[in-house]
Known about the structure:
6% strand; two-stranded antiparallel sheet; mainly alpha
Amino acid sequence: MFDVGLSELALIVVVAALVLGPKEIPVVVRKLSGLMRNVRYYSRQLRDQFDLIDESGEIAKLREELQEQARYIRDAEGKLYRTYDISEMVEKKNPDEQR
Length: 99
């Protein structure tokens, strides 16, 4: 996740020892490990909640509603205009074939 190598970890430990002192390092490590445990727990809970919502189909319904609303655009005066997706009608060119 953070891609910390052995040399970076050693530097962090040395700086922590100089700043905190050797007596405080175990306390800080325990607090950080508890914090990381809580972050993992809550992220897992959040992921589970999104999975439950996804299973119920609510996200698909919201996506469809948003796509339907995105088909209309209001101008500065508040007039409503219908938009159209023409991406299928336009030829897709290969970037290598450009002029």
